[in-house]
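Example (one chain per record):
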Amino acid sequence: MPAASPASQSSPFDVNALAALRAWHEGMPSRQAVQRYLPERLNAGHTARGVLGAVRRELAMHARSRLRDDLAEVFERPAAERTRHARAVAAALDELRHLPAPQPLVGDALERWLPSRAAAALKGQGIRTLAQLTVRIPRRRQWWVAVPGLGQASAREIEAFFAAHPQLTERARALIAQDAPGDIVPLERMTSPRAELDGSRGRFRAPAGSI
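Predicted structure:
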């Protein structure tokens, strides 16, 4: 069995992992930083550079899960320039630690939340926002067959996404109810689609002002 990834052994905000990363950015050699703060990972057969690279990648992934590509890029800068970005890394860590998980809104574009391939397939059918996708997903089996390029695996991911955020479906239905025209309207709101058919020019109407 292959050794576990060094990034999988702790959360993105593991105290020792962050200490090793900070020390490395301040100029400490990678092996020395990992030996001081994360020696158990070296014992698992990983190189010091691999350990630090995994920490950086997991922090970048966490930043992107919070829709902060700008913070993710801080952890992806060239290793040779690490000392130049020590302050930026420290600031990014402090900010990222307190960011709440974002919540999707019905007006959000699909590519903000769904895999790019699935989003492209749906956009090809005129579905561009979560609201449009919410009301277009039929309540029947194999609904994805009608969307070229969207397979069953992607469809299951989309269904799981909406199951995890039921407020999207509720909000989309509320919007539809507000926008849908009613079949019955008050008399004072009734209008003719054509002015010449509203009866005001009829031959048998009483003279104006006689009533």
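Caption: The chain is about 50% helix and 0% strand.
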